[in-house]
Every structure is written in C-alpha cells, then in structure tokens.
Amino acid sequence: MLTLIYLIAITAEAMTGALAAGRRHMDIFGVAVIAFLTALGGGTVRDIVLGRYPIGWTQHPEYVLLVVAGGLAAVLVARYMRHLNRLFLILDALGLVAFTIIGCDVALGMGYHPVIIVMAGMITGIAGGILRDVLCNRVPIVFRRELYASVSLLVAILYLGLNHLAMPHDWNVIASFAFGLALRLVALWREWQLPVFAYRHDHH
Amino acid sequence: MLTLIYLIAITAEAMTGALAAGRRHMDIFGVAVIAFLTALGGGTVRDIVLGRYPIGWTQHPEYVLLVVAGGLAAVLVARYMRHLNRLFLILDALGLVAFTIIGCDVALGMGYHPVIIVMAGMITGIAGGILRDVLCNRVPIVFRRELYASVSLLVAILYLGLNHLAMPHDWNVIASFAFGLALRLVALWREWQLPVFAYRHDHH
Amino acid sequence: MLTLIYLIAITAEAMTGALAAGRRHMDIFGVAVIAFLTALGGGTVRDIVLGRYPIGWTQHPEYVLLVVAGGLAAVLVARYMRHLNRLFLILDALGLVAFTIIGCDVALGMGYHPVIIVMAGMITGIAGGILRDVLCNRVPIVFRRELYASVSLLVAILYLGLNHLAMPHDWNVIASFAFGLALRLVALWREWQLPVFAYRHDHH
Fold it and tell me: Which of helix, strand or coil describes residue A27?
C-alpha cells in the first residue's frame, strides 16, 4: 500500500519537476534530470547522510525509468496540466507524507536517535524539491510556501510518537496520512503560512 | 592511454571552470575551488552515489594539485584562450567521453544494474559542470547547450552494449571515443540541439 | 576547550545563517534549515567526502537542536545584531579556525595524505557558508570576501606543519588559533583581498 502510494508520488513529483524545468526553458534532457532529482533526490540525500548503501534507487532501476518517463510525459501533457492543478496538489501532499514516513522508517531501522529520525523524514520529504529549485536557480520554494516543510516535521513527530506508544504500523501509517493530508490541504485552502523573517540591514 | 586522456581532460575542464569563475569576478581562491569542482566534481558525486570509498581524488592528491594549477594557469593565459576556443571545445569533448567511459567502468566493476551503470557514466560526465554552474549561480548550461549530456548518454549505452557483446576493452574504448567525439563535434558544427520545453503557465 | 569554542562557533554561524535567510524573506522553517546548514553543513560535506560514517551531528542530536535554537534566536534579536556586528565577526573568525583544525584532525586520524588533510580542514571551514549561499541563490561570498578561505588554507597548512614537527597538540591548537585569528582580523581591518579574476569574453 505504502509502495503504491510511493510510486504514484514519485511520478507526480517527477511531473511537477518537469514543469519547473520547462519554466527555465531546459531541453528534454534537463527535464529528465530535474524530474529525477525532484522525485528521487530526497531519498538520495537521506541515504547519503545516514550512510545507507547501496542507495535506494540504485537497486530499483525501474524507479529511475518511471520518473524519467513521468517527466517526459509531463512535457506532452503540459498544456492540460493546469486543469489538473488540484489533482497535482493532492498527489504532491500524498507524496510529502509518504516520503516523510518512509524516511522515518529507514532511520528507525538503523537505530538513530529520535531527533535524527525526524530529520531523516523531513530530508526525504523536502530535499528533492530543494535540489530542483537550486538547479533551476531560484530560492527553494519550500522555505516560503504555505505550510509544507512544517507538515513534514509534524507528520514525522506524530509518526514517531505513535510508534513509541506501540501503535501497530498500519494504523500509525493511516493516522499519519490522515493528519498530514488534512493539515496540508487545509493550509492550502486557508493559505496558512509560517511567520516570515524579513531582514534588511546588511551587516557585512 | 585512458589515464593520459583523463589527465588532459581534467586539466582542460579545470581551465574552463576557471573562466566561468572569472565571469563572476571571483578571487583566485574561488577560481581554484570552481576549477577543482568542474574537473573532479563529477567523479566525486559518482563515488558518493555508488558508495565507492575512498573517493578517487583522495587517493590521488596529485590530481588535486594538477587541477588547481590548471585553474590558476587559466587566469594567466585567459587573454589568449579565446584564440584557443576550438582547441578547448575538442578537449572538453574528449573529457566528456573519457569521464563517461570511466564512470561506466567504475559501476560495472561494482556489479550495478545496466541502467545504473549508464547513470554512473553520465554523472561522471556532466555533474562537474552542473556543480560549476550552481556555484556560479546560473542554470546549468548542460541542460540547454547543443547535444552534450545526450552525447554522454549515448556513449554510455554504446559502451555498455559493446561490452555486453564481449568486444575487447581497448577496441570498445576506441569505438566509443570515435562515436562520442564525432557526435559532439558534428553537434557543435551543425548546432544540433534537443527540443526545448518552454512552459509558461505558473500553476502554483 | 576546542569543544567549547566549537559550540560557540556553530551557534554564531547558525545566527549569521539565519540573517542570510531573512534577507531572502524565508519563513522560520527556512531560517532553521539555513542555520543548520551554515553551522553543520561543512562537517557534513567533509564526513561524506572522507567516508566517515556515522556523520558527526547524527551522533550529537543536541548540536542539531542548538543550531536550530540559535537560528530562531537570531530572528528575535535581529534588530540588535547590527550593534553586535564586531562581536559576530570575531565569533565567525573563531569558528573558521576551529572548524579548520577539527577538519584536519578528522582526516589526520583516518590516515589521509597531507594534501587531502588540508582540503578536509578547508571543507569543514567554508562548505557551510557555500551551502548557505547556494540555497540563498547567490554566488558564495567566501569566493569574493576579504581573506577568508585563504585563512582556512593557511591555518590548515600551519597546523599540519607544526603537527609534523611533533609540536604537542595543545600548543599547536593555540598557535594555529593565534595565527588564524590575527590574520583574519587584520584582513578585515585592512580590507585585504586576494586578487580578483574578472573575465569578460564570452567564449561559448
């Protein structure tokens, strides 16, 4: 079940990555690279930071082909994607929660400290989008958008807390999804944002 | 032979990296760092992704000194380099093919899946240039230039295919070089480009 | 002693990272991420490059909490920080030297070649600031500021040289700090800079 959601999520992330590449007028190779990094970059950074080798997608070449295909498909259907905007926001929210839970599971299995487990969940959830934005030469949108990274943080804390309370894994996943999806969608709907820190004085 | 080409290639890549740093008015320390990353960054990213430790250049400090020297030399001869533009494009094409083949060899020797071997070749070929452009705060040129990353992709596939057909390594290297160099130089001459994906609607 | 300086330094680096995030109008989550990367990113890159697992901060979750707290505290006291500009420049110089020495020690303990040890010191000293600037979408300031990265380079060479001459570790640390701090502060005071390489001809 989590695997199916994961496959849907990396495909959706790849497609949104492709659109970001298109806004920079990249060629289709650049589109494929950005699609790959957006979808699989978060898990890659997590595995490197946790020292978990071999890295996930190197053992699943079919994931690589899937996200590249998703990115190229996005080029073909780009003109219709604006009508699917809401669908993609929901798939993106699904992906954010799925990535976060999977990241926590990986670090849990390696025996890391709870603070590091929460960070592993967040890295999996948001690092792909950060890599996409750095390669597209813009300030990462996850640092400025409606509650996004914070959803990942809260889902990771909830998931770890329920796990600590010995809730069965399946129920924990369902509860974390319900909470994370609801929070993200309400944040989108009500345009909830974290406080912004605007600093102007140039002290150097 | 491949080692000699590799040494020429990393020096040439370091020199072009130095010019990119000069366009951003960096100091000579920045020039040295960008030269290093352009020349050895691709192999570094490949080794980290494949989990191949120790990383190549940490066992070859002479490579580090060579590329830093190359970058600083470029500062001295910058005014003449425009006349050597064609020479550098040829050396850069040599480097692209050599890096790709070396990257494939590394992943082959570690027993990775063919899809991952091709990716290892491409990462070695293009990640250095991507790091250079990210640190110079511009959209990576490999995503927009005449056939470049695609040359790396096709060379990797050809090299792996001929290897699979049991062609002797030396012949395989020669065939891959002939194909890759010819394709890159014709692409430069005829200004072949991949289709560009220009996406304007801002769906966020 | 070195640990105490290290804790002061990562807190100070986190606070300056937070100000950089504030200049980009990031939300407080972005502030926390940039604070973390500025303070602990250098050690992370060093550990990944040297293949030293587990990575430092994953075994010290209290460091993660400290730098995040430092970053958020900077938001609260930002309006007073301009009056503390000199203090922060001194703390930043302390951090640069402390990071460099710690990085050299790590690579020394792993038996790397002297050239790689010097690079490990510099990576620890400056990579955090480079990550901060890349995520804030600007050309890394360490490539253009008054002697900064070069202070790290010279401290690393001095430290390694005195170590080679069998100077006791404590004396070596004191000598390296005295040299590094003095050099950095004089460079700030006299606005010493490395020569800048300005290259205008666009040869592509």
Answer: strand
CA quadruple B149, B150, B153, B156: dihedral sign: negative
What type of residue sits at position B72? Answer: L
The rounded distance, in Å, linking the Cα atoms of B129 and A30 is 13
> What whole-number distance in Å separates Cα of residue A88 and Cα of residue A108?
30
Q: Residue B100's closest CA among B23, B27, B172, B17?
A: B172
Q: What is chain C's length?
A: 204
Instruction: Please give the ipTM for the structure prediction.
Output: 0.91
Please tell me the distance from the alpha carbon of residue C101 to that of residue C158, in angstroms, as a whole number. Answer: 10
Span B108-135, pLDDT tens digits = 999 999 999 999 999 999 999 999 999 9
Residues of A within 8 A of C82 (CB-CB) are 201, 203
Contact of A199 with chain B, judged by CB distance below 8 Å, is answered with no
| Distance from chain centroid for Cα C128 | 6
CA-nearest of B10, B98, B100, B15 to B57 is B10
Nearest to C122 by CA among C14, C187, C49, C190: C49
Q: Residue A139, SS3?
A: coil
pLDDT at C40 over 90: yes
Question: Where is average pLDDT lowest: A124-138, A139-153, B50-64, C16-30?
Answer: A139-153
Which residues from chain A sit within 8 angstroms of residue C28, using beta carbons? 194-197
* DSSP percent split of chain A into helix, strand, coil, nearest 5: 80, 0, 20
62-121 of A, contacting B, C-beta below 8 A: 64-65, 75, 78, 81-82, 85, 88
Residue A7 identity (one-letter amino acid): L
Mean pLDDT of A131-148: 87
DSSP alpha helix (H) spans, B51-113: 61-81, 85-109
Complete DSSP assignment for chain C: -HHHHHHHHHHHHHHHHHHHHHHTT-BHHHHHHHHHHHHHHHHHHHHHHHT-SS-GGGG-HHHHHHHHHHHHHHHHHHHHHGGGHHHHHHHHHHHHHHHHHHHHHHHHHTT--HHHHHHHHHHHHHHHHHHHHHHTTS--GGGTSSS-HHHHHHHHHHHHHHHHTT--HHHHHHHHHHHHHHHHHHHHHHT--PPB--------
pLDDT of residue C80: 81
Structure tokens at C156: 């690393």
Which residues from C are below 8 Å from A114, CB to CB? 61
Q: Write the pLDDT tens digit of every residue in B38-57.
A: 999 999 999 999 999 999 99
List the one residue out of B173, B126, B182 whose CA is nearest residue B152. B126
